[in-house]
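subagent[fold] <- orchestrator: predict structure for attached chain, return tokens only, no commentary.
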Amino acid sequence: MTANFMFVSDDKYVKNLGVCTFSVMQNMCPVVDRLRMFVMDCGITEENRERLTKQAARFENAEIIFYDINDRLNEVVPKVPTKWHRAIYGRLFLVDLLDRYDEMERMVYLDSDILMARPVTELFTMDMQGKCIAGVADADSYERKRALGMAEGSAYINSGVLVIDTARWAALDASRRIIDYINSFPKELLYPDQDAINYILCDEMLLLPPEYNMMWMICDSDIPKIMRNIDHFYYSAEELKHALHHIKICHFAGHDMWTFYGITPIPAKIFNKYRNDSDWRKEKRHFNNASECLLWLMMSVKRMIVGEW
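subagent[fold] -> orchestrator:
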């Protein structure tokens, strides 16, 4: 089996990407014949490209392929301001890879703030039931569907982990339609790429169990709070608890893994495991200010006191 993964990064997030891709190789290389990692490059330096390539060379069946999309990103020009970096649109140019690698039947997209904790070969063999994409329901599903005018019974997934049927994506002209929606939507999209993917492909989605995109903030004590505070949450408490202790993919959801100061000890443990074995293990933590550093130290102590290691 050949497993194809896609990532997006610029040089600011390349440290995250380094640990992320290492976690993928560590888990997938022993169980597949070939692993290809496509990086949609939004400005990674040549030095860091070489570093990522050298790390991939530690695994004889792994390959990392860079595809420069800086010019292509100019096609996404939303008419409303957004706080998000334009790199979020990188996944939409999957169509470029399909033009070059027409033998791909399945692609798994991962945000660079994600770590794989267990192999996920089943994502490449699962029955997509004729649908285009599969993902985990987002915690904001109910509110986002209402804001976008989507049907109450439709799915709304977190776009950090996407299983994509590439032939279906191409047949639906998904890349162009999603970009056109982002550029022309009359209101500000809260999560521009994610909202657009869900709106355009609302009838083309399968939902995965939460362990395939487990958000960093969930721990045992959080589950009752989630069930109380999130309207119409898709997963049951039992499903969340099972996922928490059988995580396949851990998602830091916009938080820098290197300066992560959440209380939940599980993602911190996963991060340390892969960072310490990766080619990025000597990287220093970088804090934007003294208060951020102090908060990280306080949370580190609190995690040790709370336990759950």
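orchestrator: received. Logging for downstream: The beta strands are 2-9, 34-41, 62-68, 106-110, 114-116, 133-135, 161-165, 205-207, 214-215, 249-251. The first helix runs from residue 14 to 28.
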